[in-house]
Amino acid sequence: PKSGGTPISTPPGFFSPQLPPVCDEIQLAILSGTKVLGTATLHLSQISSAGAELEEGTPGFLPCFGPSFLPFYGPRPDPARTTSTDIGVAYRGRVLLELSTHMGTPDGRQRDTIAPEDIAQVQRHLPRHRFGLCGVFYSATMVPAGPQLLRFELSLGNYGDRGDATCKPAPSVTPHGCPLFDGNRYHYLPWYGDKPVAAVTSSWEDAGHRWDALNLLRAICRRLVSTRG
């Protein structure tokens, strides 16, 4: 994984699932030897449809996904914590993934590698767009008790992650604060009238053409449902 949303190049893979499936998800993992760096999950119920079971009903479709970027997340130790058992979740990278399903017997194709020059050529032509995220924290209640200082972090991918040295520093974390007892059962951070603000600026490829098409299809579906009703 690289900063700026550089996709991870992976060769195409082929496997023979049994239909109907005995599970509802496909789990993908990024490995370094035997160590799992990050995982992502595709739910079959979200990328396929059995169709209407009534006569003249809506036909279904086999599992399909993408081509689209799929983010991967994995655990990382939090240096702000005092115990090794406390872990956080970090952005590990993303994979440009396309999943298609074909009926029949496997054609015997094997996994092939993607040439580095092909990856570099595609990345040069990816249109990029800047995104910003700003958050205002109004309160932090029912936090765990203890002498350690607490803070909140805002991130977009690996942008804003203080544990990731590949991105420029950003005001993405709140000031450290020690929880105070509320006099009843819980603890809170004493922000009072000074509400902390965190902001992150990031740069990713412009996938607006995919979003526009999806939003248009959803708007058409909503319009047809409301017209039918």
Automatic annotation (TrEMBL):
<dbReference type="GO" id="GO:0007009">
    <property type="term" value="P:plasma membrane organization"/>
</dbReference>
<keyword id="KW-1133">Transmembrane helix</keyword>
<dbReference type="InterPro" id="IPR037721">
    <property type="entry name" value="Ferlin"/>
</dbReference>
<dbReference type="GO" id="GO:0061025">
    <property type="term" value="P:membrane fusion"/>
</dbReference>
<keyword id="KW-0472">Membrane</keyword>
<keyword id="KW-0812">Transmembrane</keyword>
<dbReference type="GO" id="GO:0016020">
    <property type="term" value="C:membrane"/>
</dbReference>
<keyword id="KW-0677">Repeat</keyword>
<protein>
    <submittedName>
        <fullName>MYOF protein</fullName>
    </submittedName>
</protein>
